[in-house]
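Fold this sequence, please.
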Amino acid sequence: MKYTYWIPALLWAALIFYASHMPVTDAPPLFDFPGGDKLLHFGVYGVLSIFLWVALIKGHGLRPMSACVLAMLITSAYGALDEWHQSFIPERSVELADWLADTGGGIVFLLLAMRLACKPRPRS
């Protein structure tokens, strides 16, 4: 049962892989403005990091901070692998800035999630 918490993270990672496997000319023109692709990377990998964080906490009983660090590492590693994967796709290239946006999105989303999840509740 604990593995069901991994389904959103695995589906999201598969969606990322599918999208990055498309040549640029086949991709929809989302965020078609300067730096827009970095914003897209930031958000997409931010969501991945949250899915990973939840899976690590609920599926494996990790403490929120331990799960946060591990989710950050996994997100960053998946971003690096995705950039490497794109080197084999026509019209795609490896960009350090994309990986930094992937990693940054993971970190920021996780820090926000930690802030919200660990916020003290008011006493009634």
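Residues 6 and 45 are 15 Å apart (CA to CA). Residues 36-60 form the longest helix (25 residues).
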